[in-house]
Amino acid sequence: RARGQFPLAGKPQPHPRPIALRRIGRAMADAVVAARRESIRKLAELKSPVPADIDVAQAATVVPIRTVAAACGLTEADYEPYGHYKAKVSEKVSEKLKAERGEGYYVVVAGINPTPLGEGKSTTTIGLAQAMGAHLEKNCVACIRQPSMGPTFGIKGGAAGGGYSQVIPMEEMNLHLTGDIHAIGAANNLLAAAIDARVFHELTQKDEALYDRLCPRKKDGTRVFAASMLKRLRKLGIDKTDPDELTAEERVAFARLDIDREKISWRRVVDMNDRFLRKITVGQNPTEKGYTRETGFDITVASEIMAVLAMTTSLADMERRLGAMVVAPDTKGEPVTADDLGITGALVALMKDAIKPTLMQTLEGTPVLVHAGPFANIASGNSSIIADQIGRAMVGAGGFVLTEAGFGADIGLEKFMNLKCRSSGMKPHCAVIVATVRALKLHGGGPAVSPGKPLPHEYTNEDVELVKKGVANLTRHIENTKKFGVPVVVAMNMFPTDTEAEHAVIKEAAMAAGADDCVLCTHHAEGGKGAAALGEAVAKACEANAGADTFRLLYDGETSIKHKIETIAKELYRADGVSYSEQAEAKIAMFTEQGFGALPICMAKTQYSFSHDADLKGAPTGFTLPIGDVRCSAGAGFIVPLVGAFPTIPGLPTRPAYYEIGVDMETEQVLGLS
Question: How many beta carbons lie within 10 A of that of residue 322, not counting itself?
Fold first, then answer.
């Protein structure tokens, strides 16, 4: 691997205080100190203007992952290397480390409603991690999501950060990583194939033939139920274990799932932006005997299996959640699950390695755990509970875990609080909200911003009045976050065209809204040094809220589905009310009847506005939130209302990012990623 090297600032590098020295033993502590001295580093002699992200990343020194792992106090038994610079960390390691070290502070990084260009939330998360680890000498781990290749080749680009605040190797992170998303796609599509195949076989076979094929006789004439079939038998109240002992009625009940073909909710997935897969017809070949049906694809990160991965706490918990996934109702309206199809074990087999977070590093050596990748606009929008638990145990008491919530705080942070924290029981000590002058100008009435087009002059020249009008968006995000009882630090992610007067407006508004602090950040251009002041503000806020005693959820899960939807809509979005389509009404009634009414809510909504309308900028009020459809993710553990007609697989733009991407034939390095 041909890579350059950034000069380090000075010879011997300062390193964070060793993790719980008295608990892990002197020899281990010495090894941690030595590994940190080798891995934690400050960047110096940085270029201005900042080179392209991939050029910065490929010029960086990448420390072998075994050194990064050793600096975290991990033994070789705790992780599995994937090449030289990535490793899978065992999901079982958190309990051991927690007993040795305690748990660190829990910090969520969210943002205001962004422009289509993004406002640098991932970059801020990584810059803050670099500041904490390399500059403030604190134990720190960043927990971020795995990028989907849809945006990587579409509009938004990758999600490794940017400038001098990145996860490296960035091309490995943005392309495939350790294959988790592929595993999710394979598991999802195996289940989809199983559903259609089961419906086909039930439609084309008589009762006894169907039962005999599900439980075939061996050469000696005996037959047994597969272990995967036992959950179906228990659900039916059948306690027999010999297939020959079932009555004729029991055989029919076991063999016929009677899936309602018109109401199958499980869709196939692909990890690319492909608008032409939003609605398709399957079964058109003559071999399927005319049993066609309309369905569609989602992007892989919208799969419920991705949400299960993000919400699970162990392999056994993942098995339970995968088995509980509802794929359709039967003709009587009862839920049909993966367990009913006998496929849960196969799904776990495909996912058993994906449950382990991937350990990587920042440009300045801070460890990063990359795991799960649900979008915040169409899914749960946060990295995994397992990664956060491992991270908090790795840093130990007094350390910091920075976990990123997707898009604006109206969706990503809300789901972090109401879904992730509700499920895990963890309480955040601080929330960081990332804001930019550019986005606030858009919310103040500035002209539309489009990828690939030059920014209008309003964004490249000082316009204090636009910022003053737009800070209402930031103010509402701060107010909403404080409703969860969590202190807020605002990070102003600086762009070269910003001015001091514009920053002053933002800080004044943030502090008036109740933020603990509002800090200017230059981490894109300066790495961790540019986020050191932010790190100090975050540390201060966490230490003042060490018990996280004021944390609270927005709603009681036992209330009705509609009540929970309307609480989010009115309390956070500030809608006047909620309207429901006929389809949404029917789904809510069905899910309530099926026993899923107590599940929390995961709203699928545009990231560009508090409302359903991406063009309603700022802090809109007086609107009615339309719910066009509702889905049930019983395995992940939530109900998904779709706000308006909301696509769950993006499309490619006229000029996608893939035009810039290629491979250097001599060095074999990837080119053009962003």
Answer: 28
Q: How would you write 588-654 as a 3-class SS string?
A: HHHHHHCCCCCCCECCECCCCCCCCCCCCCCCCCCCEEEEEEEEEECCCCEEEEEECCCCCCCCCCC
Task: Give tens-digit pLDDT for 9-21.
Answer: 433 344 444 454 4
Average pLDDT, the chain: 94
How is residue 208 annotated by DSSP? H
Distance CA 632, CA 639 (A): 5
Pairing between β-strand 430-435 and β-strand 105-111 as defined by DSSP bridges:
parallel
Phi/psi-derived region of residue 45, left when phi > 0, alpha when psi is between -120 and 50, beta in every other case: left
What is the per-residue burial (b if ≥16 Cβ within 10 Å, else e) of 503-517? bebbbebbeebebbb
Closest CA to 265 of 307, 321, 303: 303
Are 254 and 241 contacting, i.e. CB atoms less than 8 angstroms apart?
no
How many whole angstroms separate alpha carbon 8 and alpha carbon 40? 10
Q: Are 672 and 57 in contact (CB under 8 A)?
A: no
Whole-angstrom distance, CA of residue 154 vs CA of residue 116: 12
Phi first, then psi, for residue 370 (nearest 5°) are -105, 120
φ and ψ at 431, to 5 degrees? Answer: -120, 135
Residue 23 has pLDDT above 80, yes or no: no
Taking only the tens place, the pLDDT of each residue in 291-319 is: 999 999 999 999 999 999 999 999 999 99
- For residues 557 and 593, is the Cβ–Cβ distance under 8 A? no
Is the separation of the CB atoms in 442 and 458 below 8 Å? no
Arithmetic mean of pLDDT, 214-222 = 95
Closest residue by Cα to residue 615 from 462, 365, 397, 442? 442
Q: pTM of the predicted model, to two decimals?
A: 0.94
pLDDT at residue 438, rounded to an integer: 97
- Residues 14, 561: Cα–Cα separation, whole Å: 53
Angle at 81 between CA 75 and CA 83, to 5 degrees: 150
Query: Residues near 420 by Cβ (< 8 Å), separated by ≥ 6?
Result: 310, 311, 380, 382, 385, 388, 426
Name residue, tokens 């993004």: 118
CB 449 within 8 A of CB 594: no
Torsion sign (Cα): 269, 275, 276, 278:
positive
530: three-class secondary structure by DSSP: helix
Number of Cβ within 10 Å of residue 548's Cβ equals: 18
Characterize 260-283 residue by residue with b for buried, 16 or more Cβ atoms within 10 angstroms of its Cβ, and e for exposed.
bbebbbbbbbbbbbbeebeeeeeb
Judge residue 22's burial from the number of C-beta atoms within 10 Å of its C-beta, 0-12 exposed, 13-18 middle, 19 or more buried.
Answer: exposed
Extract the tokens encoding 459. Answer: 């964004």
The model's pLDDT over 438-477, given as tens digits with 9 standing for 90+, comes to 999 999 999 999 887 899 999 999 999 999 999 999 999 9
Q: What distance in Å separates the CA atoms of residue 573 and residue 16, rounded to the nearest whole number?
A: 41
**Residue 7 clears pLDDT 70, i.e. is over it:** no
Report the C-alpha gap between 397 and 17 in whole angstroms: 12
Q: What is the pLDDT of residues 409-432, one digit of tens each?
A: 999 999 999 999 999 999 999 999
CB 102 within 8 A of CB 418: no
Q: What 3-state class would DSSP assign to 406? A: coil
